[in-house]
Specification:
- With 412 residues, the chain is α/β, with parallel strands linked by helices.
- It has two domains: 248 residues, Rossmann fold; 156 residues, N-(1-d-carboxylethyl)-l-norvaline Dehydrogenase, domain 2, CATH 1.10.1040.10.
- Helix content is 38%, strand content 18%.
- Strand 10, helix 5 and strand 11 form a beta-alpha-beta unit.
Length: 412
């Protein structure tokens, strides 16, 4: 049965070990993979059954990477649903992570009550010492790795904020949707930017409390250098994040992030406009046709830009259709593997909190790229226009907006 576990109990802390015979980095088994008391934490045993990767095959010394990860100083800017979900697992693994967040109430709640992570298997209570944004100016020394999980439109100023606290070899990792690798690279340089593709579902209903809808074994990430090179630091980032998810390394992070964008395009704005969970929106009469046309338009733009169509979200290479069917298939993966009946997209969560959403990181981005290419994406454009009306308060998210969505197909 599930339970509540306070950080500090060693049986609730994942550890890394080095296999003497194989020199592979591996981790204690997680309960959802190999069985446990059901508490939601790893149990000892089956050490080599969960292999994070054979680093030596890629020319990296597993022992050196292991020691490097253990001694690094990390910052995580943006301790919302995604950041707190991933960061809490890394904290419980013993990594030295400083949380930084701009939501005053969230920081105060975590300072007083700690961080609560509700998982399908139970509840974690983690002790953290988060910083307010203004407290960053009082921080001394430098961070080896800066993770950020802020909204896409906040990426540039966060990179500027953390730049004085980063050394020449420090790394900035965007745990975000959207093409944020461009903003971080412009501020910090390509040689200090690593991108990440997310396959995670979580929400933060109140300050200091996260509902993580899938555990670490069902969470998928892909990381890669913006330059596409294979480096020690991208392996260090992978090992840190491997406490929180299944993590792959890609040599084409731009295309990899475009694949996630293709998956996000049909889900984010339509379901938010309807004001309902994603699965409910996809099952609303006529709406899936709108979603699929948005996917086709986005695929066409990616194709015009020369983007490589890669397997993503844990799919095998043979699952990549050589047509815009692949974009439609990606939505199916999201619906089948990364959605619960209660899952709400990030855009709707933002609107419900009265916040600006990432319209320009999703369909707004597709529209802008289509303009650059001289092509048309009428359905995405019309959906963006509806979303902007909601943003300025002229409309509200509601199932009553269904006909407006269906009418977008008339533009096709």
């Amino acid at each position: 049965m599930g339970g509540i576990h306070e950080k500090g109990s060693q049986k609730g802390v994942p550890v890394l070990v080095l296999s003497e015979s194989l020199k592979k980095v591996s981790r204690v088994a997680r309960p959802e993979e190999f069985g446990s008391c059901g508490c939601g934490h790893p149990v000892e045993g089956a050490m080599d059954d969960y292999i994070l990767g054979t680093l030596e095959d890629a020319g990296h010394d597993a022992g050196e990477v292991l020691m490097a990860v253990d001694g690094l100083r990390y910052a995580l800017v943006g301790a919302g649903a995604v950041g707190s979900s991933l960061g809490s697992d890394m904290i419980q693994a013993g990594l030295n992570i400083t949380f930084i967040d701009q939501w005053w109430e969230n920081v105060e709640a975590m300072k007083v009550n700690g961080l609560t992570i509700n998982l399908p298997s139970g509840t974690d209570k983690i002790s953290v010492s988060p910083l307010h944004i203004h407290e960053v100016a009082e921080t001394r020394g430098s961070f080896d790795v800066v993770f950020t999980a802020v909204k896409a439109y906040d990426t540039r100023w966060v990179a500027e904020l953390m730049k004085p606290l980063m050394g020449e070899k420090s790394t900035f990792v965007g745990l975000q949707n959207g093409m944020t690798i461009d903003e971080s690279s412009q501020v910090l340089g390509v040689d200090r930017s690593i991108g990440c593709v997310l396959g995670i579902a979580a929400n933060m209903p109140e300050p200091g409390v996260v509902n993580r809808e899938f555990g670490s074994s069902e969470t998928w990430l892909s990381v890669g250098e913006v330059s596409g090179t294979d480096t020690d630091r991208v392996h260090e980032v992978r090992e840190a994040l491997s406490h929180a998810a299944r993590v792959e390394i890609t040599d084409d992070i731009r295309s990899a992030k475009w694949m996630k964008l293709l998956a996000n395009i049909p889900e984010m704005l339509p379901s938010a406009i309807l004001g309902v969970p994603l699965l409910a929106a996809a099952n609303t009469e006529g709406v899936r046709e709108v979603m699929d046309q948005m996917s086709r338009e986005a695929y066409a733009v990616a194709n015009e830009l020369g983007i490589s169509f890669l397997p993503t979200l844990g799919l095998a290479a043979e699952a990549v259709a050589n047509s815009d069917q692949y974009a439609i298939d990606l939505l199916d993966v999201i619906l089948q593997s990364y959605s619960r009946p209660e899952t709400k997209v990030a855009v709707l969560q933002d609107w419900e909190k009265g916040r600006r959403a990432e319209i320009d990181a999703f369909s707004g981005y597709i529209v802008s790229k289509a303009v650059e290419q001289g092509s048309e994406v009428p359905v995405n454009r019309a959906v963006v226009e509806i979303s902007r009306q909601i943003e300025v308060g002229e409309m509200v998210p509601s199932p009553d907006n269904r006909q407006l969505l269906l009418d977008t197909l008339a533009n096709y």
